[in-house]
Amino acid sequence: MSTAIHTLTAAFNDAFAQLGQSAEHDRRVLVTSWPSLPVEIIRASGLRLVVATASKTATPAADAHLEPGLFPSRVRQLVDAALTGRLVHVAQVVVPRTSDSDYKCFLYLREFVRGSLAAAMAPTVLFDLLQSDGPHVGRHNAERTRALLHTVADASGHHPSDDELRDEIRVTNTARAAARRLAALRIGAPLVSGTELFPLLGAFWHVPPREYASLANQAAEDLANRPPLPGPRVLFAGAPVDGTDLHSAIESRGAVVVDEISAWSSPGTDDDVRCGEDPIAALADACRCRTVGARLPASAMRDRVERALDHVDAVVVSLPDDDATFGWDYPALRERLTARGLPHAVLRGEAHPFPFADGERLERLVDAASRYRAHHG
Amino acid sequence: MADKQLGVTAAASAFQKEWFARLRQRVFERREPYALVQADVPFELFDLLDVPAVSNQWWAAVIAAKQQAPGLLDAMAADGLHDGLCRYCSLGYASMRYRDAASVPWGGLPPPRLLCARLTCDCIHRVFSMWADACGAEFVEIDHAGACELQPEWWTLGRRRWRELVEPHRLAFTVAALEALVARLEAISGRRLDQSALRDRLERVNQQEEIFDEVRGLIAGAPQCPVRMTEQISNVMATQWVRGSDWALSHARAFRDEVKQRVDAGIAACPGERLRLMWVGAGLWHDTDFYTAFEATHGAVFVWSMYLAFGPDGYIRYGLDDPMAALASRTASFNEYLHNPPWAPDWIAHQAIQHRIDAALVLRPRSMKPSATGRLFIERALERAGVPVLPIEGDVVDARAWNPEAARAAVRSFLDERVSA
Questions:
Q1: Is B95 a residue whose pLDDT tops 80?
Q2: Is B362 helix (H, G, I), strand (E, B) or coil?
Q3: Is position B310 within any domain?
Q4: Whole-angstrom distance, CA of residue A138 vs CA of residue B254
Q5: What is the pLDDT of residues A111-140, one digit of tens each?
Q6: What pLDDT shows up at residue A358?
Q7: Nearest CA distance, B130 vs chain A (angstrom)
Q8: For chain B, what is the domain count?
Q9: Is A63 in the same domain as A192?
Q10: How confident is the model over B125-141, as pLDDT tens digits?
Q11: How far does B313 lie from chain A, in Å, by closest CA?
């Protein structure tokens, strides 16, 4: 593994787990529950973003308050960290409105403080960015994004100017370009596995953009000379994945994950943010349209899946126990897949630790995908 | 099913059935538009613009009460919709999408002109979009701006200080969303919303909820509960769906008068009342006999549910200079107050004390994820207030996994071991 690949992988895997080890480090960190904040605002204010990630680590403190089967692992990890004092020194906790689970996470975190259930906790706010497309949503989102800027700037002590924001958008777009270069290695004949690539894309959120662009471009060069991977190509649809357990499970059976509908890896497919007169409004609208999550309208999810279907030989539809949303998309997705003759499998169960031990099903899917590929080229 | 004890209850049921029959007639014979809506949208706007509105939750409850839900739920599962998805909000959709899977009550829903929902839970946009597609109707969404400032004692602020209860940006957002809804309704009906008519309607809604406040006080203060919880719900909800109308005000008064007569005459719903119970959550619509099952054995009467109590605390808005803003202040958080901290635990514990509750049964709904959140906070708040809690695992419309005998046995054990002792 090259240094660039190792550095990015570690940045994706370790950033959240390392919180609570150094007060000095944590004071420059803003923690969130899903990669759906305008990261440019956070970095222009002088803070680093760390996103809570799913983990097999037990969460006893959170489990005492979060009802079973309702919250994804990432939210449990965040709440557990908050209740056990690991977030006490971070500059700010910002919970986005990405899903009902996230919103409830915000309400619970505030209740822990009100009820003295947490010894101490960083200030916690909601980033109420809406994703519907009503005529009044854009204004609301711009106002909430401006409010977020003020909150973050107050926490960091640095209020960025519009020009600083524009510069941050420009630099972050270079990081997006590097992520797209990495993602291009999956198109057609993939040169890299999903297990390896997903953390490289996900590191976009944790690594400052100049550093990310440099490392990601280096990683792309390191990977570009590999021979193509021979297995059938798989897309992950359904609930967005936030780790590589599922990638590993299917790739260990000979397939290659070439795309997943997830906010973590979306920098690999997102266009640049176009910065008009108002950089805040531009960032707000980019978040509204792009953030993959439970409140992204089904039509946008459908379009995103549709774009991926031309490049894959099978689809895994992941619907973990806490899913309340993506399962509704399944009958229509099944019809589209059937019309194309694309094999697919629905996986249900606990998402973490990885449960989908139905190895035979995965093997049948990989076999079907191999036949599809042989038939369709 | 337990006998109805109040004369007004039969009148409420008859009104609803007649209302629905008239609706079908208007739609099928005169091709008039109607709307299918979530229970938390402002029905007043629909009524004032003469677009009748059917509550999705009411219709789901009717299907479940008629024991027609299992066939529809099986059909959903057969279509690949997994069992963790919300059944309460989607049963109405299933009744139109899988028509042959059940014998739907009262001839079924006619095709709506539009659907309308607040985007509270994540699934709502999905369910209503699919529903609109299935019946070729328009879907008007009211997005739900989240609460950033959390005011705990919402029921003390809501009546007169609602501008403090809802942050200005959320109020403005909700007003804009309601104005967009009004524009659609005006286009459909060809009528214009008269702001003074809206103010008048909200004043009449206030009057209706004040009457319910009297009823609540009568029930809380009487030595023994004068009216069963199931009959409270029948009378209150039949009225709420047409709130502020002539019939609603008239029926609310008749309901109050009959409850008062019973209190004055010392008539108890359960003459041997020994324990006063609270039901926290939506109703078990497929098994409403559950709510009277402990009267004979334990003298245990369900005294409280959210359906009556939320009327006065959730709906009354004084200060109607800007009626749309007042309506938006009610709409903005609405059902959050019933489930989530900091709002629900404090309110429900407060209500338990006010109603001299001996024990609470808290629904743990299987598939209604948003309603299932917050319940641990509620259970702890009740226990802190000295009210023993029994969680009840169940679904409000899905009887397939419900074991009535086991559930009743669990409650009897709970009453014996934690309450009666």
A1: yes
A2: strand
A3: no
A4: 47
A5: 999 998 887 889 999 999 999 988 899 999
A6: 72
A7: 9
A8: 1
A9: no
A10: 999 999 999 999 999 99
A11: 21
pLDDT of A357 above 60? no
Question: Which residues of chain A from 300 to 339 reach within 8 Å of chain B, CB to CB?
Answer: 319, 321-325, 327-332, 334
On chain B, the residues whose CB falls within 8 A of the CB of A126 are 146-148
CATH assignment at residue A308? 3.40.50.11900
Q: Please name the residues in contact with B202: beta carbons below 8 A apart, sequence gap of 6 or more.
A: B44, B244, B317, B320, B323, B326, B327
CATH of the domain at B66: 3.40.50.11890
Find the closest chain B residue to A334 by CA distance: B80
pLDDT tens profile B292-343: 999 999 999 999 999 999 999 999 999 999 999 999 999 998 888 999 999 9
- Judged against a pLDDT cut of 70, whether residue B393 lies above it is answered with yes
CA-closest candidate to residue B108, choices B48, B73, B68 = B68
Distance from CA of B93 to the nearest CA of A (A): 12
Tokens of B149: 């400032």
Strands B300-304 and A233-238 come out as unpaired
Decide which of A156, A172, A188 is a domain's last residue: A156
| CB proximity B5 to A under 8 Å | no
Nearest to A30 by CA among A97, A121, A107, A122: A122
Domain ranges, residue A94: 3-156
Among the candidates A137, A156, A175, a domain finishes at: A156
Q: Report the number of distinct structural domains present in chain A.
A: 2
CA of B174: which chain A residue's CA is closest?
Answer: A136
For the stretch B376-390, pLDDT in tens is 999 999 999 999 999
CB A166 within 8 A of CB A212: no
Instruction: Report d(CA A189, CA A229) in Å as an integer.
Output: 7
B367: pLDDT strictly greater than 80: no
Q: Is A246 found in the same domain as A319? A: yes
A111 near A132, Cβ under 8 Å? no
**B171: closest chain A residue by CA:** A140
Q: What is the CATH number of the domain that holds A132?
A: 3.40.50.11890
Query: Measured between alpha carbons, how far is A303 from A306 in angstroms, rounded to an integer?
Result: 5
pLDDT at A352: 58
Q: Are residues A256 and A180 in the same domain?
A: yes
Test B341 with A137 for CB contact under 8 angstroms: no
In the predicted structure, residue A356 carries a pLDDT above the cut 70? no
* Predicted pLDDT of residue A351: 59
- Structure confidence at residue A256 (pLDDT): 98
In a domain, B22, yes or no: yes
pLDDT at B114: 97
Q: How far is residue B23 from each of residues B60, B234, B268, B363, measured CA to CA in Å?
A: 17, 20, 37, 33
pLDDT of A53-78, one tens digit each? 999 899 999 999 999 889 999 999 99
To 10 degrees, what angle do helices A330-340 and A298-309 make? 20
Q: Are residues A34 and A75 in the same domain?
A: yes
> Taking the model in full, what pTM does it have?
0.96
If asked whether residues A134 and A25 sit together in one domain, one would say yes
Residue with tokens 């059909």: B75
Q: Based on the domain organization, do A77 and A127 belong to the same domain?
A: yes
**Residue of chain B nearest A144, judged by CA positions:** B169
Domain encompassing residue B33: 7-193
Q: Which residues touch B132 (CB under 8 Å, ≥6 apart)?
A: B114, B115, B138, B139
Residues 6+ apart with CB under 8 A from B112: B33, B34, B35, B36, B54, B135, B137
Mean pLDDT in chain A? 94
Per-residue pLDDT tens for B57-85? 999 999 999 999 999 999 999 999 999 99
The answer on A312 and A364 residing in a single domain is: yes
Task: Please tell me whether residues A213 and A355 are part of one structural domain.
Answer: yes
Verify whether the Cβ–Cβ distance A100 to B121 is below 8 Å. Answer: yes
Inside any domain, residue B227: no
Backbone angles phi, psi at A124, to 5 degrees: -125, 130
